[in-house]
Please model this.
Amino acid sequence: MSPLFTSLLRRRRHHHHHRFLSTHSQPSIEYPLTHPIYTIWASNTSLGKTLVSAGLSTSFLSSSHRKFLYLKPLQTGFPNDSDSRFVYSKFSQFFTQNRPEFSVFASNHVLKSSVLAKDAVLSGGFEVEREKNVDLGLYKESRLIGTEKNRPFFASNCVLKSSVSAKDAVLRGGFEVERENNVNLGLFKESRLLGTEENRPLFASNCVLESSVLAKDAVLRGGVEVERDEIVNLGLYEESRLQGTENWEMRGFSKLVCKTMYGWKEALSPHLVAERENARVEDGELLGMLKGCLGIESESEKGEVLCVIETAGGVASPGPSGSLQCDLYRPFRFPAILVGDGRLGGISGTISAYESLKLRGYDVVAVVLEDHGLVNEGPLSSYLRRRVPVLVLPPVPTEVSNNLMEWFQEALSTFHSLEEIMQSAFLDRTSRLRNMPRKAHDIFWWPFTQHNLVPEENVTVIDSRCGENFAVHKVVNNNVDSITQQFDACASWWTQGPDATLQIELARDVGYATARYGHVMFPENVYEPALECAELLLEGVGKGWASRVYFSDNGSTAIEIALKMALRKFLFDHKIVSDDLVAVNAESRVDLKVLALRGSYHGDTLGAMEAQAPSPYTGFYQQPWYKGRGHFLDPPTVAMCDGVWKLSLPQEIETQNPSVEDLTFSLRENIFKESRHTSNLADIYQLHIRQALQLIMDSSGSTRTGALIIEPGKTFDMHHFLFVIQGAGGMEMVDPLFQRVLVKECRNKKIPVIFDEVFTGFWRLGAESATEFIRCKPDIACFAKLMTGGIVPLAVTLASEAVFEAFVGDSKLQALLHGHSYTAHAVGCTAAVKSIKWFKDSKTNHNLISEAMLLRELWDSDLVRQISLLPAVHRMVVLGTLCAVELRAEGSNAGYASLYARSLLQKLREDGIYMRPLGNVIYLMCGPCTSPESCSNLLNKVYRRLGEL
Ligand SMILES: Cc1ncc(COP(=O)(O)O)c(C=O)c1O
Model:
């Protein structure tokens, strides 16, 4: 960046408070699918979003028993500008002019505003009619706290009518409030101010809920003062009954509900005006209020409601926190109507806006634009391949005096078409969502799934994902469709890491890479994403040992590549083949095996399975070719039981009588301490491993151990659960000391060491590489899953230069003759580049402790301890992004096939946590950027449910 540009940026920075990430907690996103809810976007400001909203109200409310809900979350320039008031008044005028048979109850409500905007409202933004006898609606209420906590009395006093002079006296003189001893102030002032039009009073209210006693005294002495630095309750309300030609009892009525959620006085972008008026609103707060405004009030309204949410400015205009609105509203992912631009240059602006929405996962259902005589709809329709309808509205009259009634009349048929499109897209969406479980059941073949055990109603329909959360479609009581949020606590097979911000960044980068490269041939070629990705890997997880990056596309193939590398290296090092790959002598044709730990998992391809101990997954029915080309050692494991970390040793080690003090740890850190390497237990491990290796050599004749493969810092094996359980328990953290001694012993015997970091790599366990935990380096290591943030598949096998050299020679036959169609896929490499950088930068990953290059503790340790002490809990393992709980279970309740945890997980799904059953073990997995608050929220729910067991 040029110095000039940097200094310009610096100078301007104080004008806004745009934040890269909105860290405030979000409400749980839930909304009914009983009626269509659309967001109205525009490619820029002043293109007629509000005209479209008002037009939709005229179209939708052309019959009775309907409700049109118009929401304007952010209104600047208020009260002079009020889009909700515009919709309210234009609809009212249109209705009065056309007078159908039924009546409409119309209301306009402004919920909150900045103090400045409120002052503007109270000091004459609205006119009060000077009638003889007016509705006063004077209302006074105070909350009086009794001696018992949480039992306030509400006292109110309401004066219904008065003369104008009495009313003036009221408005001049303020209100008196009873003296209380308590700090709860409960000062509440509300007045109904009658507007110029009949039956349209405005309600203005002011409510101060809490204050210090001193502040309260000041209030009582000096009249009502309102804090000057925040958003306040405005409660401005107007309503009217629009009478149809027939009595409403005969023909029924409809409702128009218009709501502005937040108003600011200056007509500027929300991020700027929120700062200038010192009236900020956090994203979570705004979404919470929006969620509260979406519902339907009574059962009878079902199916007859249309809700539109009109955004402010353009698609990417910032909201009050600085988040772009297209990002801000993304958790809801409501379908979109895009108001395009019919003017010169409008095609380009409209396409850009459309693409911004698409790239964030919105469905754009229709584009609407005003006719400026340039026929912009032609190129737009052809760009949209006619899959998204483009509707054209007649030119809008520009004279200020024009009340637009003729225009609304003329545009009515277009609004009817738009409404029809919206209704049918809504019905299509809900019916597709409803039918998906059945169709999935009929045509999918799910992995690791016995289809007979999955009833249709248990199929989870995932409508979308936002950060760590799924948006799930549900049909609940009374056949009501809804979208609810579930935290993806299995991180979709341990792949996922992005928060909502990274997800959008990745979507953009991945789109860019697709556009720039598609997929390109890799061997003998180079392109930026692959090169940068390789550089980052060697500077990061491969630092200090790796010098070569071999790309593939999934964990299992990365393992198979690693095995091929290791075995060749072994053949060379042990002079079993010569440099030109000729066997040194006839006896050289050895049978090569790997050394691995029982309970390890390295993937499901045939080769990867050979490196795993026998299990139901390798049995004859599953894998008739399986031989099990390995020597499998039982590892010592460690887990938290009743608040203390304890080692469980395999029998052969236990008989060596290790010191008791080596077997328990008051703190988890102590398990990883370097000082353990000089302990008596380290010696016992060493002896045990040496004996085991000797035994293998003696017993195997022509068989040689060609590689060691382990998962460093391995926690537990989730696929091969049953089998692990038969060994020692449900979930395991292999003792890192054991792994370190094992690596050392293999090195001494020139056995190449492979670290399988497919699961553990990239912060899953709290460090970028799990080698941190065992403090030694491999010769070969495999990574996948979180490497791309889990957004697209990519895997790598890193190797040291010495391993690489075993494949270097004059003949092609010496090369590693292996490859996959998507080797070094440009799109995957681009995602990896972004994710690797994102996770290890404390500006984007707030969980990172940069000095230590470790994640901070994400799971509340007190709560974890409390959970481990619950009678229902046998053991726990908590490390990095993972928290696993083994339930106390016996007999058929234990093990992978057990259904013991199913009902518990069902309840947790209702609590908004998506977990998958693993016999009697349940686990929570978050992303490297997930806030500890979210983790505590999850843990608390789990704690509560476990307490009920
Ligand atoms: C440790 C480990 N290795 C290898 C694999 C296989 O990776 P993939 O499923 O991408 O083939 C997995 C998958 O879960 C794994 O956890």
Observations:
- The radius of gyration is 34 Å.
